[in-house]
Batch of 4 targets.
Target 1
Amino acid sequence: EVANIILATGYDLFDARRIPQYGYGRLANLFTSLEFERLTNAAGPTNGAIVLRDGQTTPKTVGIIHCVGSRDRNYNNYCSAICCMQSLKFAHLVHERTGATVYNFYIDMRTPAKAYDEFYQRVLEEGTLFVRGRVAEVTDAARKPTEEGRLIIQVEDTLAGKQRRIPVDMVILSAGMEPRKDAKATAHKFGISCSADGWFTEKHPKLDPVATMTEGIYIAGCVTGPKDIPASVSQGAAAA
């Protein structure tokens, strides 16, 4: 018997295989955001070296695709909150460690928190190339000699108003956040409610964001919806 329970069961990463036209799991040098995070970690399999799947080749061109599984009516309508900033961080790390050319394919740039936009400006100054438009396809079917043996990103550049094919060596998919698969069963077990998207519902989003309508049951972190580490930490402290 306990006085209170805090539910902080986190989230599931969107399975990029659900978007077959991106080729994840079929084409070799596609990485999810979590895979790339692991790759850049000093304690990771390559001691932090950014290399292709062969474990040796350093990429010369890298494409980072935002909003994979987010802001998409076919999968999840909502914004996953972390994708823009994590993609900017990846672009910075690739520049810093390999000197490669980096393309960021985005729908809208969302950098609202403290010092976020300044970091965006810094990444721009480092030479990252930004293409505004949702990526239609990632393929290895070459149409010309310069595309042989590379991944080709097919995208509509909405600022230039034209279709583009951009060959790259590595693609990073900034996968979105989803509620845990057992979120509704967990909510039922603890007598709390879920939103239509499957996130746990708080008592009041502004006045009581860590309490639920069931006395003694508190929620923190990504169980209430997508958020970054600082927001999750502050919610955890509030719930505790």
Note: The two ends are 18 Å apart (CA to CA).
Target 2
Amino acid sequence: LDSFRTALVPDGRLALSTFGPEDDRFGPVFGAVAAHIPVADPTAAQPTSPARAQDGPFSSSASMTALLGEHGFGSVDHLEVDYAIEFDGPEQWIEWSWSHGARQLWELVGDAGHDAARADAIAALTAIAEPDGSLVHHWRVRYTVARR
């Protein structure tokens, strides 16, 4: 943030987007995949979901405003938009999960556990699917603009 502020002209704007809370219904899906991550130390805790920006200082508009203020930004405005992402079924959701940060979870599973993780994810997705087999994943995106 300090580098961004330095790069901006006085009264210049920084715009960014971050993710808000995930759809809780999909927690068991991520957990089903994470259960297949090989662990070097069997007593160590396994991750249950990908690292998420919304777990830290990006967790709320208030915490983002405070963070930006600590780095010399002011006039912070936020807009939160809820999106309903529709999928034809579990296979399409899995394909989509490889296109963003959830890919990290699949990569941690590795090739050896991929088929079993996929089967467990499909079972978890089927459990939350609509009667016609479709899935709707709700996601909130926060758009933030701050001034130097």
Note: The CA atoms of residues 56 and 63 lie 9 Å apart.
Target 3
Amino acid sequence: MEFLLPIALILAGFYVGWNIGANDAANCIGTTVGAQIISYRKAVGIMALFVILGGVLQGHHVMKTVGKGIVISEASTYEEYNKKPAGQEFHELFPDNRLPDKAILVALLSAGLFVTLATFSSVPVSTSQAIVGGVAGTGIGIVGMQASYFKLGVLLKIFGAWVISPVLTMSMAFVFYLALGRMMRGRNLMTWSRVLGIAVVGSAAYVSYSLGANDVGNAIGPLLSKFPDKGPWLALLGGVAMATGAYTFGSRVTDTVGKSITPMDYGGALSAQLSAAIGVHFFSMAGIPVSTSQAVVGGVIGVGLTKGIQAVSLKKITTIFVGWIATPACAALFAALVYS
């Protein structure tokens, strides 16, 4: 029976990756499809390729944070953070100097469950927040509310990035869109439309690469604790899972991001996607799991605000914001209760 648990862990990681692809496909291609530049199926093909590349080439930064940077499960790390020896209680809780297999399974399934619910509701939520909530929740299930077992500084960095990321991309998109508008004044609109169309597809590829670099770590980061020497293969697994999710069930949330927040033209799609890609890639290199959903929605809002507050659907934005708050909280609470 022992071989069943590793198989269950890999399937759970694939399930989370599928969820990320289904929900976050919108972040990569929602504005491209919303602006009617290319078809959904072609856009998903581009996304699949670059998500896998991003995960394999640069996904290891966030994988380490999610897998080992939230709950302190290694005795040497515990001693370094707390300036005291790891006692008998620590070794009983983490006998193998890592998260227990059941904790990894509960964290993955908790995150996947709430992202699935959001995807069926067509709400773009933060899969980063879901998996961080799931891992933190299992940590609470294992050790209770003992702060000495958590890397609080890392958690504060992650929470801060969740606030900064959408504000940053909103500001960049606002500036990019206004700058594009000035550049296009008095120019041949037919020629510029072709150039912008190509640029939008390129920016979709860049967002997809950034998504792979950041969210592959969210999908299979917890598995790194179980399989520390299989990082590249886990990254490939996460990328394929995300591509599968986008192909099979990504269209619902894509419509929300691409069409329901604010009307999108070529310049708007380019500004929103480029600002989101730059923001997410920056945090990926820092090893901080941020939300591509928040980044892209922030970019779309920034584009809408150039036309005035009335151009943005406040009702849709409110629904999205509620999802961003509820997802990590529910995933953490559910994981803590199930593991306990």
Note: The radius of gyration is 20 Å.
Target 4
Amino acid sequence: MQQQPEAWRPRAVKDGDRLQPMDRVTEQRHVEALLSEVRLVLARFGVTLGSHPLRVQLLSESHALEGMTTKIIRPPPLLRGVEALSLRRNLTAISAAQVLAHEYTHAWLWLQGFPVLETRLEEGICELLSYLFLL
């Protein structure tokens, strides 16, 4: 008989509690715990930023987007960077983690030096990695 996969459980937040998949992400510590989990899981697929620091900020609940990656180019020499990943407040933990995996992939593509990709292609790659995160 095939064993059922273990339920998704993000790492503990600072106070020792664990976020459950349907818990609402309302605090910065929740986002940081989820990003830590995203980094760990996507590294298994070779998608890693190593120790590159990423700032994650919470957007208001009324924000039109669930997530966003703010890319930058620092002159000279021209160096690519990522200013921040943004996440809409009050998403469920499982949705927030999926959005973070998607945005993390945007950051990874940019920091790996991929050329500017057609929007549909880049979004498709990011969606694929967010799906792999959920597996």
Note: Strands lie at 56-59, 67-74, 79-88.
